[in-house]
Amino acid sequence: MSVDEFISDFSRFYILTLLYEGPCHGYNILDKFRKRLGKDVSPSLVYPFLQQLEQKRLVQHRVEKVGDKEKKVFELTDEGKQLCKRLFKRFSALVYTAIEPSLEICAHCGCKVYEGGHRETINGKETTFCCKHCAKSYKIEGDVEKELRSSKSKAKGR
Ligand SMILES: [Zn+2]
User: Fold this and answer.
1) CA of 138 relative to ligand 1 center, distance in Å
2) Ligand 1 centroid to residue 68 C-alpha, Å
3) pLDDT tens-digit profile, the chain (158 residues)
4) Where are the alpha helices (DSSP H) in the chain?
5) What's the gap in Å between 129 CA and the centre of ligand 1?
6) 20: CA distance to ligand 1 center in Å?
7) How far apart are CA 32 and CA 18, in angstroms?
8) CA neighbor of 4 nearest in space, from 90, 76, 68, 64
9) Domains and CATH numbers, the chain
C-alpha cells in the first residue's frame, strides 16, 4: 500500500493522528478536529476514510452502548500503528526540511538553534550560539587557537 495515498490529504493525516492518540468515536474525530484546528471536517470524508482503513485492516471497531444507542469505537490495529509511525517520521522529515533554511547552528557545539539563541559579535562578526556558555567556550577556544597559531609562526621563524 502506498504511503503517499494517505499523506496526500492533510485531513486524512490528521484523522490518523487522532486515532493514534487512542480509540475514538466518529463524532470524537469531528469534534477534536474542529476544536484543535478550528475548522470542520466533513463527515462524508471521515466515515468513508474510516471504512477504507478498516478494509485495509489498519483500523478496527467495536460497538459500545451509550444509553440506548450503539456507537462504533474505532481504534488502530498494530498494523495501523506501524503505518502511523512511518507517516509521522516522514511528516517530521518534511517539516524539518521546510524549516531548515531558517535554522541556525551554534558556532560552538553545532546544535540546532530553532529560535532565539545567544548572539555575540566576535571579531566584528555576529555569531550565533545556543547559549552563553557556548559563547564563552568558543571565545576561550578562539584565544587558545590564536596562541597556538602565533606560537607556530614563532616556531617557524626560529
Ligand atoms: Zn552550543
Assistant:
1) 9
2) 60
3) 455 454 447 888 889 999 999 999 999 999 998 999 888 888 988 999 999 999 999 999 999 888 888 889 999 999 999 989 888 887 777 777 677 777 788 888 888 887 788 999 988 988 999 999 999 999 888 887 777 777 766 665 55
4) 4-7, 10-21, 26-37, 43-55, 78-99, 132-157
5) 5
6) 35
7) 8
8) 90
9) 4-100 (1.10.10.10), 104-157 (no CATH)
